[in-house]
Structure formats: C-alpha cells, structure tokens
Amino acid sequence: MAPPRCSNEILSIAAMLSSPNVFLRPREAAKAADEAKARFTHIDGDHLTMLNVFHAWKSHNEDSNWCYEHFLNFRSLKSADSVRTQLSRICTRMNLKLVSTPFESKEYYSNIRKAVTSGFFMQVAHLQRQGQYMTVKDNQVVHLHPSTCLDHKPEWVLYQEFVLTTKNYIRTCLDINGEWLIDVAPHYFDLSNFPPGECKRALERMYAKKEKDKSDRF
Fold first, then answer.
1. Domain hosting residue 68, numbered range
2. Could you report the per-residue pLDDT of 84-103, keeping only the tens digit for each?
3. Do both 90 and 27 map to the same domain?
4. Both 126 and 212 in a single domain?
5. What is the three-class DSSP state of 173?
6. What is the pTM of this model?
7. H/E element holding 164?
8. Cα first-last separation, the chain
9. Which of 6, 27, 68, 210 has its CA 20 to 30 A from that of 87?
10. Element (H, E) at 135
11. What is the Cα–Cα distance from 189 to 183, expressed in whole angstroms?
C-alpha cells in the first residue's frame, strides 16, 4: 500500500485527540448542541469529524464567538492549535514533508483513514453476528459509545478509548476497511497466533482474496 499523502491532516487529528473534548453539550441546550455537532459530522466517524471542526474553526479566523454559536470549546481548539504547531516544528526538524491529498480527490478521506489505521491497528473491533463488537485478539465484547458520530455499524471499527461503565464501550471511532489491517500490520494479524472466532474467519477471507487478486495479476 502506497504511503497516504495526508501528513497535514494527521497532524491536525493528532492535535485534536490530545486536547479536551471540543464539543459542548449544556443540559439546558442539549438539542441545539446536538444539531450544531451534526453540521460537522462525517459519516466515517469521529476522527474526520474532529478534522472538519478544526478546518472550520481555522476558516473562521479562530473566532471565539463562532465557537460559542456552534457549541465548541474555544480553549480546546486553541490547545489543539498549539499542539499542532509543536508537531509541525518537529516534522520540520526531522525533514518530514507536510503534504495533503487534493481535497477534491476521492482518496482524500480514505487516505486519512488508512493513515490513522496504520497508527492504531491494535485498537480495532469487529462486528459480530449478534450486533455487538468484539475487540481484536483479546476478545472483549464492546459497544459503540453513544457519543460517536457513527450512525451505522461498519464491519471493522478503529477506536481511541475503551470505556468501562455499566457496559464496555469504545469511544472516538472510525470506520475502516479490514483489508488495510493486513496491509499495514501483517505481523500483528498473523493468523497462526490468532484466537478462533468470527474475526479470524473474516481475516482468513481477506487473506484468501488478497492471494487470489495477486494470482489473477500474473
């Protein structure tokens, strides 16, 4: 898999992940806050929603009044911006180019999702037939946290946090393509030491498809 050209966007997402929750939801204005959040929501999940928020804030000149009107935490965004500046300087010192896939490209968002997958491939869950998720390898039954922007249940989901309350929840989630997992981390998804179950069977099908595609090319 060719390296996705999206280091600019990954810096922004990493900065947002390192900052406090950007979405405000006061009890007395919960409906209005939910409607405001929906304007930024990306169908593929929370990481891209965070990116949308950061880009929108920048395009509105980092305006605190704009944040107030859209139920966004201005301090969180300022913190993310500061972190991003630090990360950018580190990249410059290490001669790492900051690049982006053209926004009009159909690969723009999928490249970002691939890049996030390459960094967090150990934090993945697979959808089971019963409708709940199972974390990869340690086989914990989990559910999508109510705060996630995902309004559907993708077969494979990457998550940032495991939250234990009355249920096991995964929070800050991203819809990913399972085939990316065996591309970016074949060592981790080695079937020889994988626990049995639906997840392993899904991986077996993907490996078989990959081999078939390879043989069809020759």
1. 7-94
2. 999 999 999 999 999 999 99
3. yes
4. yes
5. strand
6. 0.94
7. strand 156-164
8. 19
9. 68
10. strand 133-135
11. 9
